[in-house]
Amino acid sequence: IVNKANYDLCTNNIHQFFVTLFLGILNVKTGRLNYCNAAHTASFILKRDGSLTKLDQTHGLPLGLYKDKKYKNSKIELDVGDKIILYTDGVTEMLNESKMQFGVDRFKKILVPLKELGPEELVKRIEKSLDTYRGNTAQSDDICVFVIEYKK
């Protein structure tokens, strides 16, 4: 899928746009997540016990740069109740009034206490934390957070 998307972007891309991508295919019967990360932010798995697994394996450059680039994939096994947290770099690069970034460490710290929440409430709490951190500073980048909980 990723190789084909990359090839298509390269051959029909007169403006030379590129895109980062995280693509995951989850087997809902077994919990096996097969994923490819093309230069996107590293996603997290929030375990039921509050521990975090960072999916920091990268599989190549953004799509749309080199049409013959081949992308590989990685696999991870999810347990029932694990949550996949996907987000754009606008989350961790958000600036506050002191021009300090929200950062990955702060993001991880807010996730752990929220381990019991369902995906919708978890996203709402993350958004609230981001709004509080930003204060009166204008949003300067796109922000997207997506949470999936594995249930058998």
Characterization of the model:
By secondary structure, the chain is α+β, with helices and mostly antiparallel strands. Helix content is 25%, strand content 23%. It has helices at residues 2-11, 89-92, 104-111, 119-134; strands spanning 21-26, 32-38, 43-46, 52-55, 74-77, 83-87, 145-149. The strands form two sheets. The protein has a four-stranded antiparallel sheet with strand order 4-3-6-7. Strands 1-2-5 form a three-stranded antiparallel sheet, with no helix packed on it. A hairpin with a 5-residue loop joins β1 (21-26) and β2. The longest helix has 16 residues, at 119-134.
What is this structure's SSE topology?
Blueprint: H1 2-11, E1 21-26, E2 32-38, E3 43-46, E4 52-55, E5 74-77, E6 83-87, H2 89-92, H3 104-111, H4 119-134, E7 145-149
Antiparallel strand pairs: 1-2, 2-5, 3-4, 3-6, 6-7
